[in-house]
Design goal:
The chain has 153 residues and is α+β, with helices and mostly antiparallel strands. 37% of the residues lie in helices and 20% in strands. It contains 5 helices and 4 strands, in the order αααβαββαβ. A 4-stranded antiparallel β-sheet has the order 2-3-1-4. The mean pLDDT is 95.
Length: 153
């Protein structure tokens, strides 16, 4: 992959703010022709800088009012155990993000559901049945301080 030019970086920043862009606005902001902008976007996509485009949905508007950070401790940190856990977690629609971490716990999950009852059902019927888990600790999100999808480059 080539190094990003200043115009590439500017374009990526603009697309992070709103990927549903107006091409005329983009050409003016970047001081480039339409063809150049489209070619640059296609190159950034093909080189993997742009993974995909998505709409960011307001979870409360669709009835998902309960966000929980779940810390998971696995029985073992062996590669096979971690990979099998990861495979099963990828299939859980309620899990928005999952990270392998260092420290007391092995995994952190961000879970979004309708309410505490639905979260309880998620833990009892989906998460705790995964055999590799030895401990689960949950923290309920009271409010958001910051949520962003924009990378600071």
């Amino acid at each position: 992959m080539e190094k990003l030019s200043p115009q590439d970086k500017k374009l990526l920043r603009i697309l992070q703010e709103n990927s549903k862009f107006d091409i005329t606005d983009l050409t003016q902001r970047l001081n480039m022709s339409r063809t150049s902008v489209y070619e640059r976007i296609k190159r950034l996509e093909s080189e993997g800088y742009i993974k995909k485009y998505a709409a960011i949905i307001d979870e409360k508007k669709v009835g998902l009012n309960f966000t929980v950070i779940v810390n998971v401790q696995l029985e073992s940190q062996q590669f096979e155990v971690t990979e099998e856990f990861a495979r099963q977690v990828r299939e859980l629609g309620e899990v928005m993000q999952a990270y392998v971490i260092s420290g007391v716990y092995d995994i952190v999950l961000k879970v979004v559901v309708k309410d505490p009852e639905e979260f309880n059902n998620f833990v009892v019927k989906k998460l705790s049945v995964i055999p590799q888990i030895s401990k689960i600790q949950s923290s309920f999100v009271m409010s958001y301080i910051k949520q962003s999808t924009e990378l600071p480059f």
